[in-house]
User: Fold this.
Amino acid sequence: MTIKHIEFSGIESRRYSKNTDYQGSVSASTTINITNVQATNPTQAMVDFRYNVVYNIGGIVNLEGTAICECDSKSALDAWTSNHKLPEKLNEEIESTIMYECFVHSLSYSYKVGLPFDDRHNIPRPKIGSTISYSSFEARRFSKREERFNQLQIGHGATIVNVYERNEKEANIEFRYTVNYGHVGVINMDGNLIFPGKGAELAFQWGQKRQLPKEITEQIINTILSEGSFEALVSAKLLNLPPPIKIEIPRVKLGEPPKKTTNTGGMEVA
Assistant:
């Protein structure tokens, strides 16, 4: 048995605790659940799975996908149909490959939301407190991986969820950023933006009208869109979704002087 490749269809990572300065031991338990088996031809089967990591400090990472396996698909399907289990040897080989493939991705998405993997890995824990930090990621592909799209409309949205005082000179802005692919898929991120200003005043304005002054709102939304679009690009690639932003590939022509480029820069909120 060999696994030709793994196709991912869903990603979810969440940190339930606002505190990331963890005290004591950090541990994570990992499970793999096979959810469905289909025979595509006599020597190939599609095995749907869910990979779960649960943290003792309050957090999860879930990956969903399909493993394309070269095997006796009839035997695999018969075993699955009769008792929802695969033959023991085949099951061990599939689960070990899924574990190997999913480990790096689960580590990446746990760090995105401020979760360490566990104390067995000598990797510095992330420090939340930079301009933007995330508390949850969710990305799903609804269509088949091989489906092609013509003139797909991709929508971006950033919403301010809450504003509260961090200190005299800063406010915490809780937000949600969404990339909507319509019937094809969706990417959602929840996070926190540290915004310089009179924290108490901004929190009071938000509490009164659930809105902030126009110029401040524009700065916040543009920063979320700028930062979030690059994070969304990584998730889109993993799920084989179209890039959420236009990517211009630099090209050269030998024998011609390079064209001058203008760096328009970008706004940074610290």
Q: What stands out?
A: The longest helix spans residues 88-112.
